Amino acid sequence: MRLPLIPSVLVAAAVATMIALGVWQLGRAREKDALQQRYEQNSRLPPMALAQPRAAADETMLFRRASAFCLEVTRWRKTGGKSASGKGGTRFIAECRTGAEGPGFAADMGVSADPKTQLRWAGGEVAGIVVGEPPEAGIFDRLTGKAPPPRPMIVAARAAPGLEASSPPEADVPNNSLFYAFQWFFFALAAAVIYVLALRRRSAGRLPPEA
Q1: Which residues contact residue 158 at a Cβ distance below 8 angstroms, ignoring those fewer than 6 apart?
Q2: Which of 24, 51, 83, 161 is 20 to 30 A off residue 70, Cα-Cα?
Q3: pLDDT digit string (tens) for 32-44?
Q4: CA-based Rg of the chain, rounded to a whole angstrom?
Q5: Sheet holding 88-97, edge to edge
């Protein structure tokens, strides 16, 4: 049976691409497992002082207990959040100056059911768990890599007056990569089987009828 050149090349390329995506997802699954282990280890480490805030929150500090001194609140940000008691509301994030030139840090100071809550907290000691701050950049900037990396943000264990403490973050990394890998391998196998069956049917249709 003579294989049609162009359809065969296209199907082979598609199957190879799907297999490559499956292999890539297997690698991603291993990376996420390692990241999950790192975050769990961080959560068990003793508290650290965030004396020199970094421009970006990296995996060495995420989900670790830390403290820092907010010398001055330069700006308040509002975003959706959930309190430690499970109630939804508006989360108040303080942009903190540390006294030295640099990126400063963000502090999640709690949640309120009223988004118009007026806060009197002007700074002080902040202690809690470190996560990455919520992005302010748009989706396009994030997809194109133009958005700056998230700075470290301390989710304060003690809320600012007038707020309820935010739900403490948990070191949980969603890992669906293994499922996606098997999915890509299944698509590759299905495409190959369907193409082989199509070729057999095409070949059978060309056979002369039996006498």
Answers
A1: 127, 128, 165
A2: 83
A3: 999 899 999 999 9
A4: 27
A5: 48-49, 65-70, 124-132, 152-156, 105-112, 88-97, 72-82
